[in-house]
Design brief:
The chain has 255 residues and is of the alpha/beta class. It has seven helices and 13 strands. It has helices spanning 59-66, 79-93, 111-119, 130-138, 170-180, 197-201, 221-230, and strands spanning 6-7, 18-25, 39-45, 51-53, 55-56, 100-105, 121-126, 142-144, 155-161, 181-192, 217-218, 233-240, 247-254. The strands form three sheets. A seven-stranded mixed beta sheet has the order 8-7-6-9-10-13-12, sandwiched between helices. A four-stranded antiparallel beta sheet has the order 2-3-4-11, with no helix packed on it. It binds zinc ion. Zinc ion (ZN) binds next to loops.
Length: 255
């Protein structure tokens, strides 16, 4: 018996009506798991154009997915290269904030927080993988196993790197992020951009994101900018991510 998704009743961003757009078979994927459905169905909202999966997985299915944590999401993996990548992102933030508390949501391999500490920030991390939390604590960083909705306090920088596309409902998470960020703080958001040239030139067969079992959303830059504004942020800088294929990296300020 395969785990099934909880279907979205409507667009998870705006509540509008969504219609099927694309169905892909992911059985050839390197992380394919027979306990999960063989196909991924993508829907598109008729109101806001957002593209999302037909539904989302619950904890039992997510546990199957996380068993196969890819190496680069483990703390300490390829540490010097990951430090170099993290520094590229931190240097985009420095013109706006150069010190203070930095909360990284879904810290994965921990490289961003470890490198932010080198730059003089006070790092705080949350992640759902218990082994990563323990390892980062061993390295002296305040790390907890919790979701963004369970965090309180005030932060000068909050990073949501490759996180929003995993969340079944990103809107409440962004509203809570808005409550946590300092009035002159900086939000960092990265995720794949369906309006990028590389995305559009690999459509649909060679595009890896239609077969990404962990993702619930395929954001466009246009929709993500609108979403940030709906949740109380104003984008201030666009850039491409050097970490993942076809990804964008956006800085935003609370308004
Ligand atoms: Zn919508």
């Amino acid at each position: 018996m395969k785990h099934q998704r909880i279907p979205y009743e409507s667009c998870p961003l705006c509540g509008g009506r969504s219609e099927p757009r694309l169905q892909v078979d992911w059985t050839g994927h390197s992380r394919y798991d027979a306990r999960l459905p063989d196909t991924i169905e993508w829907h598109q909202c008729m109101t806001c154009d957002h593209v999302h999966t037909s539904g989302y997985f619950q904890d039992d299915a997510l546990a199957c997915i996380f068993e196969k944590t890819i190496a680069e999401q483990k703390v300490g993996e390829d540490v010097e290269y990951q430090r170099w990548l993290a520094a590229k992102l931190i240097e985009k933030v420095l013109p706006y904030r150069s010190a203070g508390r930095w909360l990284d949501v879904g810290f994965g391999n921990g490289a961003l927080l470890l490198t932010a500490r080198e730059y003089g920030f006070e790092p705080v991390g949350i992640d759902i993988r218990p082994d990563n939390v323990e390892r980062l604590r061993d390295l002296g960083i305040a790390a907890n196993r919790r979701g963004i909705g369970d965090v309180d306090g005030c932060f000068d920088v909050i990073s949501l790197c490759d996180v929003l596309e995993h969340m079944p409902y990103p809107v409440p998470a962004l509203h809570h992020t808005r409550r946590l960020i300092a009035s002159d703080g900086v939000l960092v958001v990265s995720c794949p951009n369906s309006e990028s040239a590389s995305w559009q030139q690999t459509e649909p067969e060679a595009n890896p994101y239609w077969r990404e079992i962990e993702h619930c959303h395929n954001f466009s830059k246009t929709r993500l900018y609108a979403l940030l504004r709906e949740c109380g942020f104003e984008p201030i800088r666009y850039g491409i991510s050097e970490r993942y294929y076809s990804c964008m990296e956006i800085l935003a300020r609370p308004v």
